[in-house]
Amino acid sequence: MDTQILTVTTSPPTCNDLGSPPKNSSVSLMHDTSTNMNSSEATLGRHLARRLVQIGVNDVFSVPGDFNLTLLDHLLAEPGLELVGCCNELNAGYAADGYARSRGVGACVVTFTVGGLSVINAIAGAYSENLPIICIVGGPNSNDYGTNRVLHHTIGLPDFSQELRCFQTVTCFQAVVNNLEDAHELIDTAISTALKESKPVYISVGCNLAAIPHPTFSREPVPFSLSPKLSNKMGLEAAVEATAEFLNKAVKPVLIGGPKMRVAKAFDAFVELADACGYPISVMPSAKGMVPEHHPHFIGTYWGAVSTSFCAEIVESADAYLFAGPIFNDYSSVGYSLLLKKEKAIILQPDRVVIANGPTFGCVLMKDFLQALAKRIKHNNTAYENYYRIYVPEGLPLKSAPEEPLRVNVLFQHIQNMLSGDTAVIAETGDSWFNCQKLKLPKGCGYEFQMQYGSIGWSVGATLGYAQADKNKRVIACIGDGSFQVTAQDVSTMLRNGQNPIIFLINNGGYTIEVEIHDGPYNVIKNWNYTALVEAIHNGDGKCWTAKVRCEEDLVEAIETATGDKKDCLCFIEVICHKDDTSKELLEWGSRVSAANSRPPNPQ
């Protein structure tokens, strides 16, 4: 008997490495390649299902439509694969995004065009965040391609390529499966490309093909064995030598982690270098959770003018800084206001090293580079000693008077005390970005937010997906009222699947982050009775508990209940806050981003 075994082992830090199994786990994919399938199993649909299970997808987020119903039947028939029915396609995509952040890969299934163009916003966000998602669409009957027929769910033209053309810009591979002869090759190429590129892919499956047996599906598929990317040895050595020379002559160098460490699978290598060099280590805001915050030299988030206290001063006064996987956009640079100099910077991308104004080295993988540099770098803790000299511990919020209206800084003081290695934080776009950024993550605590794309409403679906992927962590989601109104329906799906997140709904009457960039009447939203809405969604089916809090006493009681008697329930806590109660960081950031947005046109 010929048996293939593929084993993947990793030991990521507080946040799971992309494409890797959960922390402290090993995935062993064993399949007997001599096993022949019976005709009911040797179908296109079952082959696709088996491939998903092989790569670590045990839950597929779906919305049924007439073009994908037969495919859903065959996905349901696969042992180890569950369909998670969502309220809409956008949330199904967001859920696949959250799932991929925990498991390393996610999947969703929707119907042709009306479903595809609904999910595409979530897929674009996953593309921006380098998340491999298998986006599967039930397509038209294969006999309709090449005819002059007009189909429902389209824009009324006989050309069926509109959806495909839309997905070409937000996926790294597109497969339109409208015959069985090349279906096996197209599906396998799409899935393997998603894993190799850490980007979403698009697979359209003809609605009449999923149930048909074919000889190419007659045997259990051999597990993927993806060839590892390799660094150019000469380039690696030259890059390490040049970088070591640059850093070793610096007086007070620093080390900053960026979000592309995820796609480079370089979390452990970054910590290895941090241990060896003695530099103070920081993270860019979109990399929070990727570096262990309990590291003795961790000094917080580097975010220009809204950095952790004393962090920007140390970074921007350094005479050398190494950025591992940075993204410098208008948001992460606080309206392009970072006080950094190119001649002091080493910029490390997943496969490239750029040294100040000097040489660039390609075909050098970040993980290999960091590990090699750790062996060549001289220990230098000068900058950390400077940080230690100027550091003053943060104060606590002013004590609340009895029954005083709850302040946001008091809320997050209590959320801080809830965090442990058994929790994960999901931060919605808005002021939660800034308040959650200040949370100190204990060892093992997960943290996710969507900074590059910044789509409001993302966190509801992402909470659903993350909680489904890692049932050992309790998700704490911080969501603004404006964002919640976009995607609220899939609290229903959380209840249906027995999830127990704690959702803090921050009700401050509108789009607060937009107010601080540019205010107007459009930033005020209709107030909902949010707890009553969730109770209506609950409708007596599932485990749910809600509370509305207006003062610190209410909050303390609600948290005690959510973490005690109701720890197995979905706990929805609506927090009533003043509309102008924002973090100081948002006030600063908003004014700088506003200035960047309002720059006049360059002279013609």
Query: What percent strand?
Result: 15-25%
- Characterize the overall form: globular
Count of DSSP helices? 21
Tell me the total number of β-strands.
21
Which ranges are low-confidence, i.e. pLDDT below 50, for 5 or more consecutive residues?
1-34
Computed Rg: 25 Å
Helix content: 25-40%
Structural class: alpha/beta
Average pLDDT metric: 92
Report how far apart the termini are. Answer: 74 Å
Major sheet: size, sense and barrel closure? 7 strands, mixed
Provide the spatial order of strands within the biggest beta sheet: 11-10-9-12-13-14-15
Write up this protein.
Keywords: Decarboxylase, Lyase, Magnesium, Metal-binding, Pyruvate, Thiamine pyrophosphate. Pfam families: TPP_enzyme_C, TPP_enzyme_M, TPP_enzyme_N. Its cofactor is thiamine diphosphate; a metal cation; Mg(2+). Homotetramer. The N terminus is likely disordered. This protein is 34% helix and 18% strand. The protein starts with a strand and ends in a 7-residue tail after the last helix. Strand 20, helix 20 and strand 21 form a beta-alpha-beta unit. The chain has 21 helices and 21 strands. It has 604 residues and is an alpha/beta fold.
Write the SSE topology.
Layout: E1 3-9, E2 26-32, H1 44-54, E3 59-62, H2 69-76, E4 82-85, H3 89-103, E5 106-111, H4 116-128, E6 133-139, H5 162-167, E7 174-177, H6 183-197, E8 201-206, H7 233-248, E9 253-257, H8 261-264, H9 267-277, E10 281-283, E11 298-301, H10 311-316, E12 320-324, E13 345-349, E14 352-355, E15 360-362, H11 366-374, H12 382-390, H13 408-418, E16 423-427, H14 431-437, E17 446-449, H15 458-469, E18 474-480, H16 481-487, H17 491-496, E19 502-507, H18 512-517, H19 530-538, E20 544-549, H20 552-563, E21 570-576, H21 584-597
Helix pairs in contact: 1-2, 1-6, 3-4, 3-15, 7-11, 9-11, 13-20
